[in-house]
């Protein structure tokens, strides 16, 4: 349970950062931010894998670049489902998904407990 709460807080912070850095991504309140983080988690867990499988031939054909579009579509879907969280275009959704992914990864690594050496 604690792991879920930490993941949710990290995603909310990353989503807030995307709202601050990416023109076209707008989050109007902290409530929309919190709900947006939960909805984005659900969309990433359920919808994005289905989209990834359906678009796999196109993703392979573009050497993985189409995966950015898939992430943008998932980000845009989450924004469409949450009042107070909006995205102005597919390009803004792709940029927001990219910033959210990178920020979430950095914050997640910084907040995760120290692991032993890999190998």
Give a quick set of tags describing it.
119 residues; mainly alpha; 75% helix
Number of domains: 1
Uncertain regions spanning at least 5 consecutive residues = none
Q: What's the overall geometry?
A: globular
Fraction of residues in H or I helices: over 70%
Relative strand content: 5-15%
Sheet/helix structural class: mainly alpha
Please, how many helices? 5
Tell me the radius of gyration: 15 Å
Distance between the termini: 29 Å
Q: Which sequence of SSEs, written as H and E, runs from N to C?
A: HEHHHEH
Mean pLDDT: 91
Strand order of the largest sheet: 1-2
Biggest sheet layout: 2 strands, antiparallel
Walkthrough of the structure:
This protein is 75% helix and 5% strand. By secondary structure, the chain is mainly alpha-helical. The protein has one domain (2-111). The chain has a two-stranded antiparallel sheet with strand order 1-2. Helix 1 crosses helix 5 (90-111), helix 2 (30-54) crosses helix 4 and helix 4 packs across helix 5 (90-111).
List the SSEs and their pairings.
Elements lengths: L1 H20 L3 E3 L2 H25 L1 H6 L4 H16 L3 E3 L2 H22 L8
Antiparallel strand pairs: 1-2
Helix pairs in contact: 1-2, 1-5, 2-4, 4-5
Quick gist of this model?
The protein is mainly alpha-helical.
């Amino acid at each position: 349970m604690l792991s879920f709460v930490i993941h949710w807080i990290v995603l909310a912070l990353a989503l807030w950062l995307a709202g601050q850095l990416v023109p076209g991504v707008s989050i109007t309140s902290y409530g929309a931010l919190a709900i947006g983080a939960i909805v984005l988690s659900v969309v990433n867990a359920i919808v994005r894998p289905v989209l990834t499988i359906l678009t796999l031939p196109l993703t392979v054909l573009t050497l993985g670049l189409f995966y950015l579009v898939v992430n943008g579509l998932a980000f845009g879907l989450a924004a469409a489902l949450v009042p107070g969280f909006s995205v102005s275009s597919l390009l803004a959704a792709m940029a927001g998904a990219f910033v959210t992914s990178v920020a979430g990864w950095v914050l997640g690594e910084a907040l995760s407990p120290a692991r032993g050496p890999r190998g």
